[in-house]
Design goal:
Layout lengths: L7 H20 L8 H16 L4 E8 L5 H9 L5 E2 L10 E5 L4 H8 L3 E4 L10 E6 L8 H11 L4 E6 L7 H8 L9 E5 L7 H18 L5 E4 L8 H14 L2 H17 L12 H15 L1 H20 L14 H4 L21 H18 L5 H11 L3 H14 L10 H31 L9 E2 L2 E2 H73 L2
Parallel strand pairs: 1-5, 1-6, 3-4, 6-7, 7-8
Antiparallel strand pairs: 2-4, 3-5, 9-10
Helix pairs in contact: 1-2, 1-9, 1-17, 2-9, 9-17, 10-13, 10-17, 11-17, 13-14, 14-17, 15-17, 16-17
Amino acid sequence: MTRHRGKPEASVLAARLEALNSAAELAEAVLPKADFAPINHVLERASTRRSLSAEHTVVGFFGATGSGKSSLFNAVSGTHRATVAARRPTTSETLAGIWGTAGSEPLLDWLQVAHRHVVADESLGGHGCLILLDLPDFDSTAVEHREIVQRLAGQVDVLVWVLDPQKYADAAVHHGFLRPLASHGAVTLVVLNQVDRLAENQLQPVLASLKDTLVQDGLGRADVYPVSARTGAGVKELKAAITAFADQRQAATNRLIADVRNAAHALEADLGSEPAGVSKPARAELAEQLAQAAGVDAICDVVATSYRRQSHARTGWPVVRWLGKLRRDPLKRLNLDRKDVSPMLNRSSMPAPGPAQQAQADKAVRQFADRAGKGATAPWRAAIRRAARSAEDTLADDLDQALARTDLRSDRPSWWWPVFGVIQWSALVAALAGALWLLGIAALGYFQFPVPETPRVEGFPVPTLLLAVGILAGVLLALASGLIARLVARSRAAKARRRLRASVAQVAEERIVQPVEQAVALYKEFRQAVAAAAGE
């Protein structure tokens, strides 16, 4: 059995089937399962039909009760000349007329057609193999008949709709079959049978009315064949059209392409527009909001406080600087910027986020996801939001670890500390020397010993100057160092904020941004796959 795989239509079908399958896989966890039943049905039907005879073209005759469908089938197939392989017990079952038997049996088994006639006359089949199906009436009161018609309408390669002058505009065929299969115009033939019942001046108005109705159905390009099975009028032209399908051997492929296009169009309701995606400003805003929620501002205040404490311990007035050591370094108290703990185990001792901080973090994540998914349909926006919240349970702990691991560089001394320290101690030594000198003079006077003359500078006793200048210098240096410490502490807090924010941004990138980007990428791939399946 030859498979015409080299034909362009076959490669187009393969590409579109692959695209439809990709779209289904991408959206499996996003869209409702009910949306996938028709798609899976198309994929399964296409896989089965492509595995069966590509030489045969299956043409189904569909019609309502009284349309003369069976008579037309006999007129087209010439069954009065057929070699009967199996007799048809009732008119309610599908009958197959077969031109070329090789490879037809598995195909007919798949179609579930048991009653088959092998036709000896090869004229209708032309140079290709052909299977004509005479189906039950689609408006039958028997439920099983309608089910057969609906099933085979989705399986045959070419659909021949047999209408009659009285019921050609019947809503049952137009709304139930023709309109839903409007995209299958390339493999659809419309037959106006029993034209012999129309007066000569009635035929053209009826044909015009039928064509207008077909335009409304979306089948404006479908060929309409006026035929009379009783007189044979138009049968030759209808045969030629059917033979052309058999000769080209592309009807099965074209039918499946139309099925895939229909399935893709069904998914277009879930497409929406191109998503906004993740922008640089959105990243920055997310990191800023999470940093605030994680308490970065409070840590920066602690960094500034810690620096001022260290500065006071190194440059403050030596008489009172020891008082600062009574308070523990706030960075150590919060277990921040420690170098003796493994980064993988490090945790801060900061208070757990309160409801306000949690709400702020949740809002930031939600807004980030909504901005990234802007333009997507509701199911995909929900999927993007779920991706953003995928690390929700561990986000607070991840942020805490990131903050605890951040090198705040609080142990780096300032160059001015030793300078001020030397001057402070020099001032203190001078003050102590002056105080001891004065104390010695007082002791000598108290015990009535001769008191040597005290040297003076500009009229002021040197020991008094030493004491006064030492104390005054110490106080002024302490005030100056406090001012400098505040300025430097503000700078260090700003640098710490940048480092802490970078740590928070890294957590946001790994736990939120990357999952959202992956979800957006899946949505974009889904849109591309649907467009490729639809041939757009």
